[in-house]
Amino acid sequence: MSIDKPYEGIAGTTIFDHDMARQGYHLNQFCMSLMKSDNRERFKADQKAYLDQWSLTEDQKQAVLARDYNQLISLGGNIYFLAKIFSTDGLSFQYAASTMTGMSEQEYKTMMLNGGRQSEYPFPDEKGV
Amino acid sequence: MARISAGVATSHVPAVGAAIDLGKTQDDYWKPLFQGYEYSKQWISENPPDVVFLVYNDHANAFSMDLIPTFAIGCAETFKPADEGWGPRKVPDVSGHPELASHITQSVIQDDFDLTVVNKMDVDHGLTVPLSLMFGQPQSWPCKVIPFAVNVVLYPVPSGLRCYLLGKAIRKAVDSFDRDLNVQIWGTGGMSHQLQGPRAGLINKAFDQSFLDQLIEQPQQLAEMPHLDYIRHGGSEGIELVMWLIMRGALDQNVQVKHRFYHVPASNTAVGHLILEH
User: Fold this and answer.
1) For the segment B212-242, what is each residue's pLDDT rounded down to a tens digit?
2) DSSP of B251-270, one letter per residue?
3) I want to staple B207 with a disulfide (CB 3.0 to 4.6 A). Which of A121, B21, B34, B39 is the partner?
4) Which one is catalytic: B103, B125, B263, B273?
């Protein structure tokens, strides 16, 4: 028997469940370290060296360096933890969100001003997203 | 005796706190949102609570991967605004109500809700933004606050029904506190939003309005809504809305809607707000 995960079928969405959290444990704890100003400075001074102090996989390290948030999420990162990275970069939540959608920041802002990404409700087809 | 006099629901978008702190509330972008809270500030000045039982979630600030309680009650005397990575918000420290918090803890654990007791905790925007929206920018917060943190970050989060029934247990606990206190319960977070992945930016006004309708009229039925529906229709972070059911569970079946407000967008999020009396 395995645990039912019906949310895995929702397109463009990764749910931070316990399996993802296990995979992302060191990545998310690295992110938490950036809440301290000293650590932020050390990270900014030499990102690679700072990352090497953590038990991240090579893929996770590369994704941090590339600021590839979709990839980080697929490797167990959670957005509230990853927020410490883009906050360290001085970038907004809206900017970070836009990078995950394939839109420019301006296109994303305009979409939000126009009422956001539209979702049908109630869903005509329970299986479709 | 203590009594719960009203419930408040509101989103707690961090950018809203930044707009208040940076004096941008009258900017074109933010003005319509803050207008929706003008009534609320007037209402709360006329109905000042002694204590706010404030249901919110921490966003990887007080709780890292070290420790993830499903339900955590703040029993401390004071709570400081958290440094979320760019310095703490310049808002007053939060004064707790350790006696009432301890009483509620003792009561609801005996009603089978196994709370985690927290005696040392910083509080992030999830708690301080609702205070700013309702009270503005005072030198000190005009009431005591009991922070009640719910895990809605690591899935599975508690079910809507669990939250609703917990609200009822909190109501019973407050009602049995032997001091004359006017207590409000606030449920925060939501409404529809998704902050991650290619589907980021999702907003669902129909879902949100339906949620507001049902929260008012048919909370028991709403409490049965499965997690999947929150995520699918309200976005991965829209699942924060289960916290509103804790607030609703603590009120009578029949409530009077004093105020209802809805606005899109605040950064990535749909903002919803209710004031309910009973």
Assistant:
1) 999 999 999 999 999 999 999 999 999 999 9
2) S-SS-EEEEEEEEEEETTEE
3) A121
4) B125
